[in-house]
Amino acid sequence: MAPRILIVEDEQPLLEMLRYNFERADYEVETEHNGDHAEIRLKEAVPDLLLLDWMLPGLSGIELCRRVRQWPVTKHLPIIMLTARSDETDRVRGFETGADDYVTKPFSVGELLARVGALLRRSRPLLVADVLKVGDIELDRSAMLVRRRGHTIHLGPTDYRLLEFMMQSPSRVFTRQQLLDNVWGCAVYIDERTVDVHVGRLRKALLQAWETDPIRTVRGAGYGFDPQP
Ligand code: CA
Hints:
Blueprint: E1 4-8, H1 12-24, E2 28-32, H2 35-44, E3 49-53, H3 61-70, E4 79-84, H4 90-93, E5 101-105, H5 109-123, H6 125-128, E6 131-134, E7 137-140, E8 145-148, E9 151-153, H7 157-167, E10 173-175, H8 176-184, H9 193-207, E11 215-218, E12 222-225
Parallel strand pairs: 1-2, 1-3, 3-4, 4-5
Antiparallel strand pairs: 6-7, 7-8, 8-9, 10-12, 11-12
């Protein structure tokens, strides 16, 4: 599943250049050019990483970063700030904004991609790992293969994405709406019962030869993924 990155930058050519390069590097990219709009967007959906320009029209990047650190849902969101050389003073660097990393303009795209990749590996290892292993189930992203105790499990693309998403947060319970937003995407309208159909199919595939059901149904809440070790 492509990591989702929100890029907030008011220089349009730079924003377009970043979008182009991150999309080429297999990120799902969303963009905003104004701090206030970015704040609204973050309240609607939390990306996997926020790339935030220091000076923005509307709410400044510094203030937005500070607020993001205060909201419970975005408290641990990985943030990289883009700063102009003139902002780069000790006073500014020592400012308690809570960004995880800073990149000074002008920067090379290669360096920025490397810093973003490093931060994601550090903060969200399961999002970028080549192989996810939870309990006796293994999902190999490079080969798009799922195995349970060494046996290959055949899954359709949606069921594969559903499993991949749930494997990133083992034991956590997801509502049907959260699964729809993350696996099918926020933009599409699909009935919540579709989730039940796919969970049923995934469960059946994972259970073919085994006794233990790795998917937990939580009545009135949703689904969790806890296979046995
Ligand atoms: Ca700016």
